[in-house]
Write a structure and sequence with these properties.
The complex is a heterodimer of chains A (320) and B (359). Chain A has helices spanning 2-36, 39-42, 72-103, 109-121, 124-150, 167-192, 196-203, 208-219, 221-237, 240-245, 264-276, 282-319, and strands at residues 56-58, 61-63. With 320 residues, chain A is mostly helical. Chain A folds into two domains: 1-70 and 278-320, no CATH class; 81-275, MetI-like fold, CATH 1.10.3720. The radius of gyration of chain B is 24 Å and the shape is globular. The chains are: A mainly alpha (320), B alpha/beta (359).
Chain lengths: 320, 359
């Protein structure tokens, strides 16, 4: 009985911490929320205002003259880079997991799996540094100009090809960071799947590929969706690696796949020090509002995925 | 092994342990008498601090100073919060900030300059002429091509490439941004009305612009991107030379185009000495005078006049007094290495008066 209570208390700590965190952010950011209004989400004009002048009173709040905070470009940068990463990472991750579970000689399997898991354990700043030193010059000087030339007929791939910093680079670095998450989880699920379904499929004359595609993969659909959600969450909140390769654009909406961007998480880091020099404190409160929006987006993405899972279950069991 | 032998061993071990303990205690005692000062901020001042520290350490072995390059915004924020004892900044604090933090002093330690650099294949060895209004046009996205008429007009006879301009700006709170935007503000009304100056400004949406962190990040971004332009502190001039990047001649208030050199920096400083107030918070940008380079500034130590201990206050006074003295940190052998200008004598006096307030 005591054990059960203890467990209940421990379990609820997580939920309470989340509530406290969001609550704190909301209370702290409240003056900014009132000052910014809807403007915050639909405009591209983040500016701390004229910091070397005297604060003025606007909408009942002390702010610096010329201060306005619109973060639409951050929301766009965050969602687009995450979308690129997830779109690329899911097929690669699934392919790698299938290969590891089925295609690799048994002798090599533990080694390759170990490396994949190791890839997931690398700190993100290492990815960022590698992206900055290796990937950006390569993409900027060779790949992007070629893409602009050959893929320019697709609207979002049209030039200018930029410098190597930007949306696609961020997306690619994020892809590398989240592929191992998907692969490792999915591989475990595939390996632990009971083999009689596959055996039955093979016995019925299905090829190995057909068995994989029609029997094994649908069996781990829940795991795939679950790991993709985790991966999406990681990509949405990734800070350091994106900070180093995104180009940290300010107030610009991406108009092609090579444009420099900023994401919400990296923006909070890069702007905090400047915000701290605002004597009215409105800049830091607006950064807290950015954090709040990021939290809300993560929650919405997670909830959507839950709904998807529920729908999935109903479909599956409905058919059976 | 004989009994005797074992005894010796035991005794030896005990002795070693005692010696170890003694050593640890001495280190602790020594550590107690050393003063640990942390300095953070301006990446423009950072190379100079790194030259200063070994020399100062020889004179004051009990003062241990750590220095990091984190940007002037961080320097001010951390000094005000008391996280670092010294915040290094190319920007003086704003009037509103000063009202909130009455204990903070802004002490000039030297005068630095800023270059405008570019990476134009084939033209890096030529000094292009640029003016405040043209730079403002470039950073506002109104002048988008290198062969734009306004740039060509300043540079007759130069074959400018038909290529879009990649502007590079600082994303961290930066004193370099502060002095660069002051130059644009003081020379270009449109910039003054729309953007003005600060350690972080709302950069207009020039297509393809790049944000970089710190002066080293600016050099790197400039080097890696042909047809780009950036503003970089003169303490990074050797890096610019090494990477064969271009340095612009900038138009001053009197209409002359000048390079940042010791001579043009001194000329500009001489114009501003008599205007420097007691608290030394003043912009030196766009000084009058034929030979005055337009972007020079005081490099400030942001420091609280109230220190937690007498030992810390004494260490800070010793450090700053040495740093601003023409025989110490402002000696030509340091200034030359980073292309800074020594503080003129009247400014040394003003700084000394501020240093004396630290207790």
């Amino acid at each position: 009985m005591l054990f059960r209570k203890l467990m209940a208390a421990l379990a609820s700590i997580v939920a309470i911490v989340l509530l406290i965190l969001v609550g704190f952010l909301a209370i702290y950011a409240w003056p900014a929320i009132r000052f910014n209004g809807l403007h915050f989400l639909v405009k591209n004009n983040w500016s701390l205002g004229f910091l070397y002048s005297d604060p003025i009173l606007r909408h009942g709040q002390q702010v610096m003259p010329g201060a306005h905070y619109g973060i639409l470009f951050l929301i766009a940068g965050t969602l687009l880079s995450t979308a690129i990463a997830v779109l690329l990472a899911v097929p690669i991750g699934v392919g790698a997991a299938l290969f590891l579970a089925e295609g690799v000689p048994a002798l090599l399997r533990p080694w390759l799996s170990f490396f994949i898991e190791l890839l997931a354990a690398i700190p993100s700043v290492v990815y960022g540094l590698w992206g900055l030193v290796v990937v950006i010059p390569f993409l900027g000087h060779h790949v992007f100009p070629a893409m602009q030339k050959w893929l320019g007929f697709i609207p979002f791939f049209r030039g200018p090809a930029g410098s190597g910093y930007g949306l696609l680079t961020s997306g690619l670095v994020l892809t590398l960071m989240i592929v191992p998450l998907i692969t490792a989880t999915l591989r475990d699920a595939l390996v632990s799947q009971q083999s009689h379904l596959r055996d039955a499929a093979l016995a019925l004359g299905a090829s190995r590929y057909e068995a994989l595609w029609t029997v094994q993969l649908p069996g781990v659909r829940r795991v795939l969706i679950g790991s993709s959600i985790l991966a999406t969450g990681r990509a949405l909140g990734e800070t350091m690696a994106v900070l180093m390769v995104s180009g940290n654009a300010l107030n610009v909406m991406p108009n092609n796949i090579y444009t420099t961007i900023s994401t919400m998480a990296s923006f909070i880091v890069s702007q905090l020090d400047s915000a701290l020099t605002d004597p009215t404190g409105m800049a830091v409160k607006s950064l807290a509002e950015v954090a709040l929006v990021l939290c809300l987006i993560s929650i919405v993405v997670n909830s959507l995925a839950r709904v998807l899972l529920l729908y999935q279950d109903r479909m599956t069991f409905g058919v059976i | 092994m004989s009994k005797q032998n074992r005894k010796f061993r035991a005794r030896g071990a005990a002795l070693a342990a005692l010696a170890g303990l003694g050593l640890a205690l001495t280190t602790l005692l020594l550590a107690a008498s050393t003063v640990n000062v942390s300095e953070t901020g301006s990446s423009l001042l950072y190379p100079l601090f790194n030259l200063w520290l070994p020399a100062f350490h020889r004179l004051h072995p009990n003062v241990r100073i750590t220095t990091t390059s984190s940007g002037s915004g961080t320097g001010i924020a951390q000094a005000v919060a008391g996280v670092a004892q010294i915040g290094a900044s190319d920007a003086y604090m704003s009037p509103a900030q000063m009202r909130q933090h009455a204990d903070i002093l802004n002490i000039p330690l030297a005068i630095s300059m800023q270059m405008v650099n570019y990476n134009l294949p084939g033209l890096n060895q030529r000094h292009l002429k640029l003016s405040g209004p043209v730079l403002a046009g470039i950073y506002m996205g109104k002048i988008r091509n290198w062969n734009d008429g306004q740039i060509a007009q300043l540079n007759p006879g130069v074959r400018l490439p038909s290529h879009s301009i990649i502007t590079i700006h600082r994303t961290d709170g930066s004193g370099d941004t502060f002095i660069f935007t002051q130059y644009l503000t003081f020379s270009t009304p449109a910039w003054k009305n729309q953007i003005n100056f600060a350690t972080t400004v709302s950069w207009p949406a020039a297509p393809g612009n790049i944000g970089a962190v710190g002066n080293p990040g600016m050099v790197d971004a400039l080097k890696n991107n042909e047809y780009s332009i950036a503003y970089i502190g003169t303490s990074f001039e050797s890096a610019i030379h090494k990477d064969r990047l271009g340095t612009a001649l900038l138009k001053n208030r009197d209409g002359n185009f000048l390079l940042p050199t010791a001579r043009t920096g001194k000329a500009a400083a001489a114009q501003m000495v008599s205007k420097t107030p007691k608290d030394e918070r003043i912009s030196l940008i766009f000084a009058p005078g034929r030979e005055s380079y337009p972007i020079i500034n005081y490099e400030y130590a942001i420091v609280s006049r109230r220190q937690p201990s007498a030992a810390m206050a004494a260490a800070l006074r010793a450090l700053f007094s040495w740093a601003i003295s023409p025989a110490g940190g402002n000696a030509p052998r340091y200034m030359h290495r980073v292309n800074f200008v020594a503080l003129p004598a009247p400014v040394v006096k003003l700084s000394q008066a501020q240093i004396a307030e630290i207790h």
